[in-house]
From TrEMBL, chain A:
Annotated stretches, region: Disordered: 45-68
Species per Swiss-Prot/TrEMBL record: Salinarimonas ramus
Keyword Translocase: no
Pfam families in the cross-refs: FixS
InterPro entries: Cyt_oxidase_maturation_cbb3 (IPR004714)
Keyword Cell wall biogenesis/degradation tagged: no
Transmembrane region(s): 6-26
The protein's name: Cbb3-type cytochrome oxidase assembly protein CcoS
Amino acid sequence: MNVILYLLPIALGLGLLGLAAFLWSLKKGQYDDLEGAAVRILDDDDLPEERRPGRGSGDNGAKPRDRS
Amino acid sequence: MSVSPALAAGVPTTDRVDYSAFVTPAEDGACRLDLAVDGITCAACIREIEDGVAGAPGLRAARLNYTTRRLTVTLDEGADAAAAVARLERLGYRAYPFTQSREEAIESAETKDLLTRLGVAAFAAMNIMLLSVSVWSGNVSDIDPETRDLFHWLSALIAIPAVAYSGQPFFKAAIRSIRAGGLGMDVPISLGVLLAVGVSLWETAHSATHAYFDSAVMLLAFLLAGRVLDQAMRKRTRAVAGNLIALRGDTARRIDADGGVTEIPVLAVKAGERLAVRPGDRIAVDGIVEEGTSEIDASLVTGETAHEPVAPGATVHSGTLNVSGALVVRATAAAESSLVAEVNKLLDAALLAKSRYVRIADRAARLYSPVVHATALLTALGWLAYGAGPHFAILTAVAVLIITCPCALGLAVPAVQVVVSGALFKAGVLLSAGDGVERIAACDTVVLDKTGTLTTPEARIANRADAPDDLLALAARLAQTSSHPLARALMLAASRDGLDTSPLADAREEPGRGVVARFEGVEARLGSADFCGAREEAARALAADPDATAIAVSLGERRAVLTLRQTLKDDAAATVARLKGMGLAVLIVSGDREGPVSRAAAAVGIETWHAGAKPGDKTALIESLTAQGRRVLMVGDGLNDAPALAAAHASLSPISASHLAQTCADALVVGDRLLPVADAVALTRRALRIMRQNLWLATLYNLVAVPIAVAGFVTPLVAALAMSGSSIVVTVNALRAQARTRSRAPVRAGRSAAPRRRLEEVAP
């Protein structure tokens, strides 16, 4: 049964890691906008400005794009 | 009398917009501005808005919160916040800066705190359960006592800090309620948890077989989850209400020392500042008229629909409408008039009475706690008398306390609350008071205010049928040039009927008289009856409808007289009928004169009405109804309704209501409709039924479980199963409050197509 002397700290350590991750995400405000996170992922504009399709390099980004 | 340049120019225009009152300093020299944004419909809007403001001067970052529909903008210090707003407006999104209300700020801090505690409790519960399951299975096979002790000590090591931290909200509330001399829900919860941990520690120290650490922590985790959900729902409702109020964009026009006019938020107006008030503007703050003469429409404040003339030296209230002439008003610090003072005095008394309300869960706890605690005590005494050792007697008594499970009781009400506030949200009712559901459901009498509640806040055309379409269109096109508040009503009516309302090129306003233009070579006029030469027609129209204001329009020799006044909301009659159908008594109390009130009452089918009521009369009426044993639901919007809203058992306000009325109301009704009032009553009644059912389920469960515990058969495994079982049952039952609303949707759509019934159809 000596094996539990290793297993218990590992199990608890993993649990604590999860708790720490949760507290970190809470502090970073990841639960402030739950709906936004779900729809932001659909937007593929995470590419750098100059590599975005349909957008010239002269565009400074201030102009709204035509979405119609 | 000297006239300031701002006023001499006729209608003062705005030179600057100043949002600095909303900008809060942030880290390293930046500052922050929160904007409520209207018109967000889809995911693509997020990018469009964030990209759209990106080029504003001095802008560092912009982040849109899609859940709350708010944009947080970080700017360099001293950057012009208005530029970002202007950019959004060019994109077609209306945005308005706002400051979080105090309640909202407190609540969002509380939510974060509760979530942290829930995280800790859930972590502890899972890890203790890991150890407990090993012990339970070991107990029936071959665990050796040393291993079991190790597991119990480890459980204790996790449970004690977790309970000490996560249990704090309950312990604090329990201490508060004991100090206040009551036994709330939190007392049995705290006692159960502390006893479970205490006894388990004792057991562990004596190498016993059973420890209840898992039950104690699981109980906390369940209850915290219930509270987090409850608060998350309320937070969202509050955010939406806050946005709607912010988007009304209440601004004032300040006259600066150099004579220029700056548009500033109402909240930033300081006492002593001079404000320019255009005709058609709402007066932002209480003040004294310094220059100009006009008429004031105080209907949203006092309910009185007749206009009151004002001249320099007169006192004007915030929320009143400036009808005819431009004014310069000096803002006064404290509202000095008798009306506001009276309202405040009545309000204090009413709020005091309201704080005595005891929530249903606490009422249940009042019955529950003594019974449970007495049972536990009797169990211990009984076993002692039977000859069992004190150790066994105390252990059994504690098992009784744990198994009676305040858990199901603690979840019974909040679970329903979460579900029903979601359903109310969809129906257009934003719940702001935590106990609003229970109180609205208990009402058997509805007292409606007339102006702004039963009727629309703005004037509408009452005799639409009398005016030919082309003349109405002409009137609307002329009205584009006018600043008169009734001009808006003409434009709205015409655009609703799909008529062309583009402004006429050469139209000009003759102050105090009307608008004149040439239309297809003929002179067109809009304005007073004299101005248009329609005195006889106007006299006839006013004889038929004495409460209305007449506006004439003429095109050459053709003339039409339109009568305008606040008409009943389209669904007013349907709402009253539905409320009556649910067995509620409905009556009207209004500050307006007898004529309009009686006609409105007849039109919607209400027999009992009180006219000319001052704020004191309204509360007196509610108090007398309460004294008759009735529970009153007050629906009102004006400053004068605030004390009555606070005095009533429960209260609702339209979102267009004055600020004071909104803070006194338990829930806000969105949009220009009244039907959500009936929906609110129906939904909360159903919710209250389910809450009661849940409490009964919890009781029933106790009736089964307690004898087993008293007999001494409850092991930690049984306690854990019973606790999760009962919690799941009440939560699933709570979900029924939601299922019903989905099937209701088509019913509502059908009803809105019902024939409209307006005041004019019944007016003499």
